[in-house]
Specification:
seven-stranded mixed β-sheet, five-stranded parallel β-sheet, 11 helices
Length: 386
């Protein structure tokens, strides 16, 4: 059998390559970047020695046993509960919104039951069917919380005010009526002790996997391979024939100094008057290390062009219309599948990317061996609202 071609040495492509290799399928993994790990790439900051997440904080968390066991085969994941805080004109607050946040914002000392009843009095009951993100938030958390934590931050993050965003963006608002400020509900949480780039390097270290960096995909390559698994931007694969899909990207600004600079891993700036959305102090993402100096990376969100790193799929109404036309084109292809966040035009947490790649490898191999129907063109449906 011919090898398969996997474009992208990020999580999606690397997990798939390893899963296939362990079942006897050889692959060539290519990536246009000079490093593996894609957007998870981590590297030492030369001035401070801190391991920096070069494309923003990547906190590994999962409740999937298969995902947890798979990752720990290549590096030990150090258990660590990450803390988030938000700052605005009212003060510095615990995030996600919890009993401490509510009591602090409103100057109260409420019990969980009292806080729940209090928030119900703040909800805008005149909004029956929220038409956008602003109405969704006003309906369920009220105006004070909306203005303090969501209005400015969301506008900076997405480039439009919440009234211009679909309600689905904030469907799952994390509001807790306890003092639990663990951002995630996942069973496992932490960071690979050697960094994400080393973890991916080890994952790709297999005799059936060849890796070429600084290598861009060209359609002519496909003829030499049994199948192509494409983890790059879906619209890019089709040369933007239906127009570009919308994304937000992020610019970073580094600030270095002695000691601790902000005192927490992630600090969100929720005021619209502050141009950046958050700062992340990366030394908090490797708590087993000690550094006399520190570096904070400030994030500035903006619209992405086709030459930019694409962080967040926008999935606005116009994007979904364009997406539907790309899906039609994808169904007419031969031996090509789309994987990962960019290939499936879906925002996916790291553990979901890993799980989906493992499961797609299972399905594709079963189809290849005649044991199951086709796994479809996509590791996860781009059209779903999830």
């Amino acid at each position: 059998m011919k090898r398969v071609l996997i474009t992208g040495a990020g999580l999606a492509g690397s997990v798939l390559a390893r899963a296939l290799a362990e079942r006897g399928v050889a692959s060539w993994v290519i990536d246009r970047r000079p490093h593996a790990a894609g957007m998870c790439h981590s590297a030492r900051d030369e001035e401070t020695g801190v391991m920096v997440h070069r494309f923003g904080p990547h906190i590994f968390h999962t409740s999937h046993e298969r995902v947890w066991e798979f990752v720990n085969r290549f590096d030990a994941v150090f258990p660590c509960i990450s803390k988030f805080r938000a700052v605005n004109r009212h003060g510095v607050f615990s995030m996600p919104i919890n009993l401490h946040t509510i009591n602090q914002l409103f100057g109260k000392t409420m019990t969980p039951a009292e806080a729940r009843a209090f928030i119900e009095t703040k909800q805008d009951r005149s909004i029956v069917s929220p038409r956008n993100a602003e109405e969704q938030l006003l309906r369920f958390v009220g105006r004070e919380i909306y203005e303090a934590f969501f209005e400015g931050y969301t506008t900076k993050q997405w480039g439009v005010p919440p009234c211009g965003l679909p309600a689905s963006i904030v469907k799952r608002i994390p509001v807790r009526f306890t003092y639990d400020d663990n951002y995630y509900f996942s069973k496992y949480q932490g960071f690979p002790m050697s960094g994400y780039t080393e973890l991916i390097r080890r994952m790709l270290d297999h005799e059936l996997i060849s890796v070429s960096l600084l290598t861009a995909y060209e359609h002519a390559m496909a003829a030499e391979f049994e199948h192509v698994f494409f983890s790059g931007p879906l619209d890019e694969y089709f040369a933007y024939a239906e127009g570009p899909l919308g994304y937000r990207t992020v610019n970073f600004r580094a600030e270095r100094g002695e000691g601790d600079l902000q005192g927490v891993g992630c600090l969100n700036y929720t005021e619209l008057s502050v141009p950046f959305t958050r700062g992340h102090e990366d030394k908090y993402f490797s708590p087993w290390e000690r550094h006399e100096k520190s570096v904070v990376m400030y994030e500035y969100s903006r619209e992405a062009g086709v030459e930019d790193d694409r962080f967040y799929p926008k999935r606005m109404a116009r994007d979904m219309e364009i997406l539907s036309r790309y899906l039609e084109r994808a169904e007419r292809l031969g031996n090509v599948s789309f994987i990962g966040r960019l290939g499936c035009y879906r925002y996916l947490d790291m553990d979901e990317v890993i799980r989906l790649s493992l499961e797609y490898a299972d399905k594709w191999l079963a189809w290849r061996e005649g044991r199951a129907a086709s796994p479809g063109r996509f590791a996860v449906s781009p059209a779903d609202s999830g």
